[in-house]
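Thread title: Can someone regenerate the structure for this chain?

I was given the following input by a collaborator and told the matching structure tokens would be attached. They weren't. Posting the sequence so someone can regenerate them.
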Amino acid sequence: MTRSFSKVGTKLTARSGILELMDDLGRAMTEWPDMLMLGGGNPAAVPAVQTLWRERMAELLADGPAFDRMLGNYDPPQGNPRFIKALAELLQREFDWAVAPRNIAVTNGGQSAFFFLFNLLAGEHSDGLRRKILLPLCPEYIGYADQGFAPEMFVACRPEITWLEPHIFKYRIDFPAVEAALRDGDIAAIAVSRPTNPTGNMLTDDEVRRLSALAAQHGIPLILDNAYGAPFPGVIFTDAKPFWEPHVIMTLSLSKLGLPGTRTSVVIGPPHIAEAIAAMTAIAGLANGNIGQQLVTPLIESGEILQLGPKILRPFYEEKSHAALAWVREAFADIEWAIHASEGAFFFWLCFRKLRIPTRELYERLKARKVLIVPGEYFFFGLAEDWEHSRQCLRLNFAQPEAVVREGLRIIAEEVARAS
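Best answer:
Regenerated them for you:
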């Protein structure tokens, strides 16, 4: 039997940041029960949301034919027709967007959505040009980094850093750098998460409008990853409006609504994009999972899904963020530290400018002490030049129970002190 893989196989099986993250997350949940889990992106157990999904599952169980259809039938590769129709009508009704069912396609999770989108748009084209994805605000989501079949698929722009108060900073888009990257003529799309994973940065409405205008000017799509954002799940702590235009590709996810196990994501974009995503789904997986779509369809039809964020999720996570920031100040009183402003999602982005070791080494030291974080180096892909800042940052999930977060912060402070 041959021991060699194809170039694509080698690319996809190489050790990656997202593989390390998910492998450690899975082991922590099964083999390392005493691990302090501050590294993964798993949503918190929000009691009101857990109750809601239990009630919806009970309703489905009580409706025998509906339950049987959910488990016993394939949906079309585009997604469940009732689900898609309800979502299109909701977006038309609430935001006056020109979205029809033909603009929508469902995928098996956001990771699959971006795998399809990036390889659909970037890479070698029939004209021989190799096109790339522009990330206007680096650091960016770890899960994008290794998704491209083509080498060097990403071009990233370093952000401007502004200080809001002692210890608290914010990344802002360097628009001249973005415009310079677009002038090269090899950009297939602009892509950004909002709020940004890993930093919790929330692009302002003006920044989004400017990115959209630049994309339209260059005849390319703007991809907005709203896994944590608007219009749902709405884990955002600032005033920000949902945004969509005909040249925008928006992705939404059910994961941060408390349904990561259903692996359900939605792509909303030009009809030819939705059609292509459905075709790729058919080839890669025949169809999508039914359970998530069936669970949330009545909430989409009623509009209740838009209230879960402002009424339940935002207050829950915002309170967690405020409490955890107080614990950070307490735990790090004797070391130099900085943190990105927490404007959405449930991550802290910590920076230790006097750290003498890269955060990948700090990650190993912390794992040995039963604390899992995510080292910052994995989030700085696509940059043309080395940046010392990339080795000084780490991502931490603050949504875990208080005892877990406080003890984890205490151990992090000890290890940072030893390595500074």
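The longest strand covers residues 187-193.
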